[in-house]
C-alpha cells in the first residue's frame, strides 16, 4: 500500500521530519516495517501550507513518479520549505498507473487528501462510484486511483462543510455499492484530510483489520518522560504528528489510533471519536 505523515504545529523545515528521524518517511519508502509492502517506490507527494499569510490558505504541492529516496528536488525543497502544516506520502500502487496525477496528496481548493489502503475490486466498482460524484466536481478528477475517487465522493457529500459525516457517507456508499456487486470487505483505509487549519485522520476497514496509524504524544508529556532528549526542547507544545508507522525516535513517542476511529487535530489539541459509516 503506502506510507504517509501529517504534521501540524509551529512552522518548521519539512526535512526535520521527512528525512532526519531514524525511521523517517524516506526510510520507510525503502524499509517499511508495518505496511503491506516493504518498499513504497511508485511515486511520492508533498503538500504544504505556506507561512506567508497572503498565501497561507492555498496549499502547494509537489509530486514525482520515481522513488522518494532518490529525488534530489524533493530533498532540496524539504530543506528550504518551512510550514506549520504539511502532508507527505510515499506510494505503493495497488494496481493503477504510476503517474503524477495518481500521486498523493490530492488537492481541491484549500483541501488536501491522502490515503493508505484500497477499494477492493475497484475496477468493477469504479463506474458506479464515479457516477455518484457531483457534476460540478467530476471534471476535476485527474487520475485513475480509488483514493482520488474517495476524495471526490467525500467532497460530493459535504467534506468542506462537515468532514466526518461526509467521509462516513463516502465509506457507506462504497460498501453499499460493493455489496450490490458481491464484493466482500471492500474498504481498507487510513485517510488524512485538511483544510489548512485542522487535520482529520481516519482509520477504518470493513473487515475491522485496518492498516496501522499512530499519533504523537504531547510534547510536554514527552519532555517529562525524556528530559535528556535535546530535540524535544526545540519543539512546540502545539506540535502534532500522525504517521502510518512511528519514526523511530522514542518507543513511547507514538500511540496507535484505535480501530474504527477518527481524530481531529487543531491548535495543539487532538480529539478522538468512533467512526461509523452511514
Automatic annotation (TrEMBL):
PROSITE patterns: GATASE_TYPE_2. The keyword Magnesium does not apply. The keyword Glycoprotein does not apply. SUPFAM superfamilies: N-terminal nucleophile aminohydrolases (Ntn hydrolases) (SSF56235). Residues 2-268 form the Glutamine amidotransferase type-2 domain. InterPro entries: EgtC-like, Gamma-glu_amide_hydrolase, GATase_2_dom, Ntn_hydrolases_N. It comes from the Bacteria. Keywords: Glutamine amidotransferase. Gene3D superfamilies: Glutamine Phosphoribosylpyrophosphate, subunit 1, domain 1. This is Class II glutamine amidotransferase. It comes from Asanoa siamensis.
Amino acid at each position: 500500500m503506502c506510507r504517509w505523515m501529517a504534521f501540524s504545529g509551529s512552522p518548521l523545515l519539512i526535512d526535520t521530519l521527512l528525512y532526519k528521524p531514524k525511521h523517517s518517511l524516506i526510510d520507510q519508502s525503502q524499509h517499511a516495517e508495518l505496511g503491506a509492502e516493504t518498499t513504497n517506490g511508485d511515486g511520492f507527494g508533498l503538500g504544504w501550507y505556506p507561512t506567508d499569510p497572503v498565501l497561507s490558505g492555498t496549499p502547494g504541492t509537489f509530486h514525482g513518479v520515481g522513488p522518494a529516496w532518490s529525488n534530489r528536488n524533493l530533498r532540496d525543497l524539504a530543506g528550504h520549505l518551512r510550514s506549520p502544516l504539511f502532508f507527505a506520502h510515499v506510494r505503493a500502487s495497488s494496481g493503477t498507473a504510476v503517474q503524477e496525477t495518481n500521486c498523493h496528496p490530492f488537492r481541491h481548493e484549500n483541501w488536501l487528501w491522502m490515503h493508505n489502503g484500497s477499494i477492493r475490486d475497484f475496477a468493477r466498482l469504479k463506474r458506479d462510484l464515479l457516477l455518484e460524484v457531483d457534476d460540478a466536481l467530476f471534471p476535476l478528477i485527474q487520475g485513475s486511483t480509488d483514493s482520488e475517487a474517495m476524495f471526490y465522493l467525500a467532497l460530493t457529500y459535504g467534506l468542506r462543510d462537515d468532514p466526518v459525516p461526509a467521509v462516513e457517507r463516502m465509506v457507506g456508499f462504497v460498501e453499499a455499492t460493493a455489496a450490490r456487486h458481491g464484493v466482500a470487505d471492500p474498504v481498507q483505509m487510513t485517510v488524512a484530510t485538511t483544510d489548512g487549519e485542522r487535520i482529520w485522520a481516519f482509520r477504518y476497514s470493513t473487515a475491522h483489520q485496518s492498516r496501522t496509524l499512530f499519533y504523537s504524544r504531547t510534547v510536554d508529556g514527552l519532555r517529562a518522560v525524556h528530559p535528556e532528549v535535546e530535540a524535544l526542547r526545540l519543539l512546540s507544545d502545539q506540535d502534532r504528528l500522525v504517521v502510518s508507522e512511528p519514526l523511530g525516535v522514542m518507543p513511547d513517542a507514538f500511540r496507535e489510533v484505535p480501530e474504527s476511529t477518527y481524530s481531529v487535530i487543531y491548535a495543539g489539541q487532538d480529539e478522538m471519536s468512533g467512526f461509523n459509516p452511514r
